[in-house]
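User: My instructor asked us to take a sequence, write out its structure as tokens, and then describe one feature of it. I'm not sure where to start. Here is the sequence I was given:
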Amino acid sequence: MKIPDSFALHTLHTLLSVLEESISIVNTKGEMVYWNEAAEKTFHIKKEEIIGRNVTDFFREEDVMNLKVLKSKQPVHEKYHQPLPDQHVVISTTPIYDENNQLIGSMSVERDISTTIRLNENLSNTLQELQHLKQQLSSKRLDDAFSKIKGNSQAINRLIYDAKKAAKSDATVLITGESGSGKELFAQAIHQESSRSKKAFIPINCGAIPQALFESELFGYEAGAYTGASNKGKPGKMELAKGGTLFLDEVGELPLNMQVKLLRALQEKEIYRIGGQTPKKINVRIIAATNRHLENMVSEGTFRSDLYYRLNVFATRIPSLRERIEDLPCLVYEFLEEFSSSYNKPLPSIHKEALNRLCEYHWPGNIRELRNLFERLMVLHEHSEISEMDITQLLPQAKQLVKPLYTVPLSLKNEKESIERERILQTLEKTYGNKSISAKELGMSRATLYKKMKKYGIGYES
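Assistant: Let's start with the prediction itself. The structure tokens for your sequence are:
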């Protein structure tokens, strides 16, 4: 059955009218001959207004794709186009030919993407603002030297508050605390917040330098001062820190003869190099740190009281990790981000029970031990979540955390050894791991203490 031309025409018109895309058809004169309902909604022009009129009465000639295709006779497919300043479309335009292959017009199909473009622009602007805020926040953090010290506990916040006040002065600072608690980090922050921040921060570990070399390290020496000395001489750490800060780490390990010379240098604000005859003026701020009880050392005669009071102008104690265990989750996430970035591995999550297990541990090595544990964890771990078992396997004394369902009664000998081991651990903790003082308090020689530590598997860091 042959379909009447009128039926086909009405069907085509109905089809074009219900399409969501705008349909426009112009003849070779540029006059609009078809304009569907979607075009009316998109461009806010009624068909009664535009049909029969030249398209350039409503649009600029250079913005009308139908006219461009009439000239080029080349179709355009799915091309981004902007027919009006605030209108964005994806357009397909094709030339129209009659049965004699004569060009009689062109037709455009346009999909309005103005809303999408505006949303994208808003998103882009929002991202730019977010990036700007991040940069401002990062800049503020860089301006705050104490931002590297992580934690929100009352103890750490109070400590930072007091340290910032001390940083504004030029007072000597004495930082005490267990090994690995972050004493040098605080010293660096105090220096960076001080008026000396543009000058050098020179650290020197008093426990790592042989006694015979200590004076030359601290004060330097003149040319030819002793056999093997440089023929040009060498400045000491106090000269190198001129105008800046000298950080004396483990100051409790200073030999008595060096304590006298350091005290004189601090009082006179001048030093003599080894082999030198002329004093050299110094301008240096001292920040000292120790994991030992200097008050006990003063009473025992192993640390000079006058030097102690000279160093103890502003004293602050860094709490151990177990004393601010509420900061542990914050530190854990900080280390996870750090090592996932440095080892180029996905950032894992951590199970609640794993965090609980970490909080139960007593952390003799403090933040240094925690950091080392998570570096090992990131190297070894291959899953998306850190479990309690992962933590248990890596903690050096994890077996102490597990409460057994049944305990075997100890013999008299084993009970005595258990008590002795516990007493040694308590004493080492009280003296921040100092073997000499611990041995004295326990009534044994240092050599005997080492033997018993080895026997009981005590690896306490000094």
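For the description part of your assignment, you could build on this observation: The radius of gyration is 40 Å. Try explaining in your own words what that tells you about the chain.
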